[in-house]
Amino acid sequence: MTIIPLSEGSFTIDKTKQFVPFDEAAHNLQDRPTGSLLVEIQPFVVITSEDVLLLDTGLGFYNRDGVLQIHQNLMDKGINPGEVTKVLLTHLHKDHSGGLSKEDKITGQKTLSFPNATYYVHKEELDFALATGKPSYTPDEFILLKSDLPRIKLLEGETGVIDGYIRYQLTHAHSKFHQVFWMVDGGETVFFGGDDAPQQQQMKSRFVAKYDFDGKKCMELRQQWLQEGTAAGWTFLFYHDIKTPVFKY
After folding, report:
1. Strands, E, within the chain: which ranges?
2. pLDDT tens, per residue, the chain with 249 residues
3. How, if at all, do strands 10-13 and 19-21 pair?
């Protein structure tokens, strides 16, 4: 499998849930509000023998030319957004779902950003996100997932398999209906833990985050995955890691 990180840059986030761009050369973290976290926003493309997979969709920001940032990042890597065949969503917090749809600047109409892709989201997460709303969720960005379009697949149950080689599992850890994915192709396993396992440095620590739905469970799952993945040779993808987006123990 080929793995391509699609960094949208570094940001700080505080209790307001606003993502503010951060440049280490120009900004000082101490100048940001107390408790601000410094994170990378980093969807991934995984190219398998069957698909061009997009794992989460970033913030949905546009660049100065009015191009959706995730589209620009794909094109910079030589991938047309129309080539994406599956979009896998761990959860619908706005930094993970912002780029799944785009708005026509003239008509204001929303369309799915990846016209030839099938979108996979867990039904319970979608229902919960629509009911909960802001500030963590922005329903306008993903309301199309509630439509009856044939390219939207609502996953159900605690675990399951997509097309024989992608496994998903609900964790109820970072968020109430967060899910994680394993992709197994050509004898290789790639694991994407979304915000249950957002940074490489957290894997070996007993860090319990107050912002998680169940921080203790997140910590325990990270230790479990580290042990299993190290033994089995998984490749880990870390969505919020500034320095180490891809790592194999």
Report:
1. 2-5, 10-13, 19-21, 37-40, 44-47, 52-55, 86-88, 101-103, 110-112, 118-122, 152-155, 159-162, 166-170, 179-185, 188-192, 235-237, 246-247
2. 999 999 999 988 888 888 988 887 778 888 888 878 888 999 999 999 999 999 999 999 999 999 999 999 999 999 999 999 999 999 999 999 999 999 888 888 899 999 999 999 999 999 999 999 999 999 999 999 999 889 999 999 999 999 999 999 999 999 999 999 999 999 999 999 999 999 999 998 998 998 999 999 999 999 999 999 999 999 999 999 989 999 998
3. antiparallel
Eight-class DSSP state of 66: S
Asked whether the beta carbons of 96 and 70 are under 8 A apart, the reply is no
β-bridge mates for residue 111, sequence order: 102
DSSP state of 113: S
Fold of 2-247: Metallo-beta-lactamase; Chain A (3.60.15)
Question: What order of strands is seen across the sheet that includes strand 86-88?
Answer: 2-5, 44-47, 52-55, 86-88, 118-122, 152-155
Report the distance separating Cα 101 and Cα 60, nearest Å. Answer: 8
Domain range list for the chain: 2-247
21-28 contacts, C-beta under 8 A, 24 or more apart = none
Residue whose C-alpha is closest to residue 115's, from 73, 83, 71: 83
End-to-end CA distance of the chain: 17
| Max CA pair span of the chain | 53
